[in-house]
Amino acid sequence: MTAVLAPENVLLDVDATTQAAVFDAIAAQAAALGITAEPAAVVAGLVAREAQGTTGLMDGIAIPHAKSPAIDRAALVVLRLRDGVEWETLDGAPVRLAISLLIPEGEAGTTHLKLLSKVARTLMKAPVRAELLAAESPESLVEILGEHVLA
Fold first, then answer.
1. 65 tagged catalytic
2. Is 144 within 8 Å of 135 (Cβ atoms)?
3. pLDDT for 91-147, tens place per residue?
4. Which one of the listed residues 65, 67, 80, 112 is annotated catalytic?
C-alpha cells in the first residue's frame, strides 16, 4: 500500500479556493514526494482530464486523475480542503476532498483503470464517504482507503 498511498500523500485542511489551486497543490505534493519532476505536466494532465468530463462525485468528493509520461510511479494524492471548492459535481455540492490518481503513461490501461474502478466503487458507499471526510489524521484516512481500495 505504501507504494501507492502513504500518510505523506495526504494533506488535510488545504487552503485552496479554486479547482486550479487544488490541481496545483496536487502537483506540488507529487513533486515533493518524487512522483513527478514536472508538476506543470501533472497539472496539464489533470486539467485535460477534467475537460473531458467532471471528476466531481457526490457529498463533496472528487477524483481528479491524470496519466502522463511525466508521472514516474502510480500514486494517490489526497487533499482535504479547509473550505469547499466550486466544482461540477453530481449533487451540486462543493468539493471538500480530492482523491487524485496519478498514473504513468505506460500503466494507463492497467493500473489506472484498476485504481479508478476501486476508488469509484468505494466512493459510492455513503458511510465510507462520511468516514473519509471526518478522518482526523492522514494516517486514519490512509487506513480507510487502504481497507476499501487497496486491500
1. yes
2. yes
3. 999 999 999 999 898 765 665 567 677 878 888 888 998 999 999 999 999 999 888
4. 65
